[in-house]
Each structure stands twice: as C-alpha cells, then as structure tokens.
Amino acid sequence: MSSEEGPTQQQQPEQEKKPDEPPSAASDAPQQESGSSSPAAEPPAAVAEPPPAAVAEPPAAVAEPPAAVAEPPAAAPAAEEKPLSFRALVLTGHGGYDKVKLQVKTMAKPKLKAGEVLVRVKACGLNFAELLARQGLYELLPSPPVTMGMEGSGVIEAVGEDVNDRKVGDRVIALARSGMWQEVAVVSADRTFLMPEEMSFEEGAALTINYMTAYMMLFEMANLRPGKSVLIHMAAGGVGIAATQLCQTVQDVTVFGTASASKHETITQGGVTHPIDYRTKDYVEEIRKISPKGVDIVLDPLGGSDTQKGYSLLKPLGMIIVFGAANCVTGQRKNLLAMAKTWYNQLSLNTMKLMQSNKAVSGFHLGYITDEQLFGRTMSTLLELYKQGKIKPRIDSSYHFEEVTEAMKRMHERQNIGKVILLPEPKKEEEKPKSNAEAGENVGKNDAAISEKKEEEVEAEKD
C-alpha cells in the first residue's frame, strides 16, 4: 500500500495547482460515473471520486509510454535479420563422390566480428587436399558435416569493425581453412587479397593454394638460384604448372616434369625442359640419361617409393621437398592397402646417413603455416609477378556446383592440365548436359529447392 500512496501524494498537488480549469470537467465526469442523486449529496461524491479517478488515470498514461518505447526495438531487428539463402557444397561423410552434396541453406545474415568481411564468392579452387578430405585423410578439415573449400575469389559485401583496408565492392582473393565452397563466406580480412583489374575470378581462385605452395617450396625452402635443375612430379597439375612458371622467373633453370604423354606438348610450352611419361618409362633412368649427376631439387607430392627415388636422384647439397601423399589415393574411397604400401615404402634415414650424403630432406604443408606476414609477403610477390605477365594460372576447366562429381573425377583420374574451378552460381538452362533427360531431372531438383525455400540435397554424382 505504501508504494501506491507515494504517487498519489505526488499527483494531488498537481491538481491543486489548477483550481480553475478542471472543476467543470471534474464535476462532469463524476456525474456520469456515479449516476443521478440529490443535489445535496453530489458534492461529497464529487470530492471522494476525483482522487481515485485522477490517480487511476495517470498510471495508465504512464504505463503507455513504455509500450510505445518498446515497439521500435522489436521492429528494428525484424528489418535487419532477413534470412540469407545460399548454395553450399557440404561433405556429409567420408567415402565416395556421393558424400559431397549440394545444399541450399537458409540462415540469418552473419554478424561480422572485428576484422572479418563477408564475401560473395564467384569462383572456388579444387585441390588434391579436398580429394583426401573426402576420404577422411586430411586432418585439418573439421568432421562432417562441413562445407569444404580452402580458396576462392569474389566481391566483398560487408565489412566488420577495424577493417580499414577493405571496402564493400572490392574484388578479392580469399583464403580459409574450410568453408569457401559456398555462395557467401565470412573470412578474416587478413586472408583476403585485392585482385588486379585484369585478373578474372577464375584466375583469382586458381592462384592462392597452388602458387603459394610452389613459391614457398622453391624460394623459401630450396632457395632456387640460376643454373639449378628441378624435378616436378605431376607437372600438368595446379602446383606443377605453378612451379614450372616460377622456375622460368630464374635464369637457366632446367625443369624435368613427369606427366602422361598426352600432356607433354602443353607442359613443354609452359616451360618444362624435359617431359617424361611416368606411365611408360622409368623417370629415374630417363633423368640419369640426360643428367648423370641427378638434379638439385625434387618436388614430391607422391610419397612412398617415389620419395626414395627422388632422394636417390639428388646431387650433393640437393634437397627433396615432400608435400603430399598422392599415392595413397587410388579410388573413390579410402584404400587401406594403398596407404599401407605407401607408408611401408617411405624413405627412412638416420641423421648420420643424412650427414654423410650431403643431402636435405624437407617437408611442406601450407595448412600448418600460420605466419600472416609470410602469407602477405608471398601473395604480394605473386600478384606483382602476375601483373608483370611472368605467371598466369592455367584454367583446365570450370564446373558449376551441380557438377562437383565430374570435377572431382577429372582431378582424381589426373585428366586435368592446370586448375579445376568450381562455380557457385546455378547452372543456366543452355549449359545443361547433352543428355536431355539428365538435364530435365537436375533442373527440376533446383527449381524445387528454390520454390520451396528449404534445404534440399542434390546428389553430386550423376549416373
């Protein structure tokens, strides 16, 4: 009761300050509420009733403003949080091509943290690491379900706080541990790099992983100098072509490149001095015929027995850099026999033997490098080389997200010459496969996903 009495005592003086104006109105209101009575009885009723009426009405008037104040905050978030719908390639489990599925996701617009940017992805790179990840052989990828993709290019749509060197509309190359295979991606601004005007989105997506890997191995680790010789395995792949082009930036470098015979003309035009068909010839013998002493640098993405062969080919003071284990991947799914064979045949050395041979064995894994200054310095160098026309990513093929199975098959079967690119935007009607039945089926699936506005999985593998 005391809490109610306080406001009553405060409001009564206000009515006393207005003795002349309220009387007529105050006398009328009580008459309506109290009904009719004798003239002599009305004054006491008029005196008794106004305070409750006057006291009761102000709280109602006071209670209304908070309701009016509460409404704008409720309306503001509703306007901001428009659902964001986007397509993504999700690894749903470890295994074959069918484990990578196209999904349409709907979520609230991401709230960027300090130092982050939102990128509308235009093109993504496919790397051999994704083939390993699909089989459960890439330890840096989070457990399924997870959106794959380590590199891409696109346009910045939003920037977070403390981002001063990027703005909405910038065309950028983006690098992340995972999550780039989708139409929109949140990445650290430090892992974005402004694209030259003349660079296409496909070229931007092809530059990051392959060229950074090749550059750091050749120049940060092996210290490539004029007059040296280099053996590049899988010379027609993304890293192989990048390494070959970078070797051309140094005078008098001899490049031995292994690739199937059908790719020799292309890699020779790209700078390989001596192409070798590893499928029909022993590349060790072929190199010895040309260079009896061997080579100065070996870039080994294969592992197993090929590491031993590469080590045997090194000249004194030479270096072999192991940066992959492609020999482990022999089919769609994990092959335990191939893995066991690769590990059984791996190079085994003791430090005394290594010292006596005057050779160096190094390992390289871009995913475990966290030096942001090294990333920035390397990308600046690569972008400058691109502007000078000394390097240029070779795009082997581009596949829409619906065709991710075909893209993976092409790389897995080593049919590509250069980079395989994935495009997030939906495939247009005229770009459908030649098989009309197949095309109609896929179009129906995509239309259903859009019209129903709910997540739909599209099988990645086509019959």
Tell me about this structure.
The protein has 463 residues and is α/β, with parallel strands linked by helices. The chain is built from 15 helices and 17 strands. It has helices at 2-16, 22-34, 42-48, 50-80, 128-134, 201-221, 238-247, 264-270, 283-290, 305-313, 336-344, 351-357, 372-387, 404-412, 436-452; strands at 83-91, 100-108, 116-126, 146-147, 151-159, 171-175, 184-188, 192-194, 229-232, 254-258, 274-276, 295-300, 314-322, 360-363, 395-400, 419-423, 457-458. Strands 3, 5, 6, 7, 8, 15 and 16 form a seven-stranded mixed beta sheet that branches. Helix 10 (305-313) links the parallel strand 12 (295-300) and strand 13 (314-322).
Structure summarized in a few sentences:
Strands 3, 5, 6, 7, 8, 15 and 16 form a 7-stranded mixed beta sheet that branches. A 6-stranded parallel beta sheet has the order 11-10-9-12-13-14, sandwiched between helices. Strands 4-1-2-17 form a 4-stranded antiparallel beta sheet, covered by helices on one side. The protein contains 15 helices and 17 strands. Helix 6 crosses helix 7 (238-247).
